[in-house]
Design a protein that fits this description.
mainly alpha, 2 domains, two-stranded antiparallel sheet, 9 helices
Length: 225
């Protein structure tokens, strides 16, 4: 059967991915700093591309939480102030506690295995002292929590509000990975998993309250906030 699909869209997909990867590199190596605007004309000229695929690439980066589109400024590298962080953590604590209770109430061997696998990925990344790996594993651990709760609206809300935080965390921590408390963060996540798998509702609430307060305090400390 002869295909009528054009080849151009495939090449365009690859192009926007490559552009996104280049700009992601600029953000993570500090060439573009938190709060700095991505000047489309300059970026397009530097990469030798037109502005159309560049804008598509910026949409990908916005989806990943690395940039934020604002009126009259275009794409700006993600930057969170202390109030942003406190508000994000307040919402995450409440909704992830709810997710944890839902998982505990509907726990199956399959759900347990998935949560433990996500925890192991995070612990392995901590042992490797790899900030990119740890950041990805941290995001995956929490994403598994949201997904296992079985409420897609809860998952969407948490995914949306958390993406900017995880991306900003990587931007800020990558240059200082040597000072990151990998072992302490690994233990906090182990405590969360234990509460989900074994705790009562009250114990889950207490564990998530304790861990999220510790997470927030450490974030504010290392970001100088």
């Amino acid at each position: 059967m002869k295909s009528t699909a054009p080849a151009t869209p495939i090449r365009r997909e690859l192009l926007k991915e490559k552009i996104a990867e280049a700009i992601r590199g600029w953000i993570l190596d500090g060439t573009l700093k938190p709060g700095e605007r991505v000047v489309e004309l300059v970026a397009a000229a530097r990469l030798g591309v037109s502005r159309a695929p560049l804008r598509e690439a910026l949409l990908l980066l916005e989806r990943d939480g690395l940039v934020r589109t604002t009126p009259n400024r275009g794409a700006v590298v993600t930057k969170l102030d202390p109030d942003d962080l406190r508000e994000i953590f307040e919402i995450r604590e409440a909704l992830e506690t709810l997710a944890a209770k839902r998982i505990r109430a509907t726990l199956t061997p399959e759900k347990k295995a998935r949560l433990l696998a996500a925890l192991k990925g995070l612990e392995d990344a901590a042992k490797a002292r790899s900030m990119p790996r740890f950041s990805a594993a941290d995001r995956e651990f929490h994403r598994v929590l949201w997904e296992l709760a079985g409420n897609r609206h809860l998952e969407e809300v948490l995914g949306g509000i958390s993406s900017r935080f995880f991306s900003y965390e990587l931007i800020r921590d990558l240059p200082r990975a040597g000072a990151f408390r990998f072992d302490a963060m690994s233990r906090e996540h182990r405590d969360l998993a234990k509460a989900v798998l074994e705790g009562s509702d009250r114990e889950i609430e207490a564990a998530f309250r304790k861990s999220f307060r510790a997470f927030l305090d450490y974030v504010l400390e290392r970001f100088g906030a």
